[in-house]
TrEMBL record:
<keyword id="KW-0378">Hydrolase</keyword>
<feature type="domain" description="CN hydrolase">
    <location>
        <begin position="1"/>
        <end position="297"/>
    </location>
</feature>
<dbReference type="InterPro" id="IPR036526">
    <property type="entry name" value="C-N_Hydrolase_sf"/>
</dbReference>
<dbReference type="Pfam" id="PF00795">
    <property type="entry name" value="CN_hydrolase"/>
</dbReference>
<dbReference type="GO" id="GO:0016787">
    <property type="term" value="F:hydrolase activity"/>
</dbReference>
<protein>
    <submittedName>
        <fullName>Carbon-nitrogen hydrolase</fullName>
    </submittedName>
</protein>
<dbReference type="InterPro" id="IPR003010">
    <property type="entry name" value="C-N_Hydrolase"/>
</dbReference>
Amino acid sequence: MAHNLEQCVRLVSKAAAAGAKVLFLPEASDYIATSGAQSLSLAEPVARSPFVTGLQSAAAKHSLAVHVGIHVPVPVSAVAKSSIMSPLLTAAPLSAAAATVGSGSKSPGGDGGAQETTTATKLYNRTIWINEDGSLNEKASYDKLHLFDYATLRESANTQAGAAFTPPFASALGRIGSLICFDLRFPEAALRLTQSPSSAPDPAQILLYPSAFTVPTGRAHWEVLLRSRAIETQSWVVAAAQVGRHGGEGVRRVSYGRSMVVDPWGRVVMELKGVKDVNGGKGVWKSGWRPRTEPSGRWGWWISISASGSG
């Protein structure tokens, strides 16, 4: 985790020096563990997470907003159980009660207030928004609704599905709608955030999909899904993606990469390279900019993690 924080802090500095307004980082930027038990052991409440507090300090130092994916411990009982197969039928706009849990992995205390969770039975796969002054936007955190359960990857074994969408929120770039990775395969979620009436008075203009796509699904579907969501909703799409092998040689988990920005016409206007080839379990990847066209002037620079995390 310390290594990942070091990478992210360097990217904050680099993005700020280039004139960026926001730094978009991938899903699970704090760590990708080798087991469910390790993931639970590494997770910390937001207020105590050295990864989060380190990023807050960097954001404040460079006056740069940061959107980042993290893990947050939470007892299953702290969240109302809802269907992860069709959360669109059950999820409501984020309520005040949900915001309390969503803001810091908290559960009701004996005095009617809230206390931080210390014993984790599951995790939230969460994104948070760090303001330019280093503070957290308490209304912008989002817990992944659709969990990836396929083949040997069973996200629901250790992750609790979110209870609701996060209403679109304002940023220096426009109104943002937050989704994560596997949410990309559900067009209704994108439409929910971008169509009026939305779960907020003003619908999202920008959809975020921080991700850690697998290589096979990434090669087949990553770009086409991102472009589809942009076209369907007539929105900008920003997808910061993990890339490369997690944990070094012998570790099977490899993420596809290819972070990209897609405009409302469905054009990929900015892109990072991803995994180049995978044979016999070995991944070869490169990182660097490959813009297809000049991005809109109002975006300025954006940057994302372009190297594998060490866990």
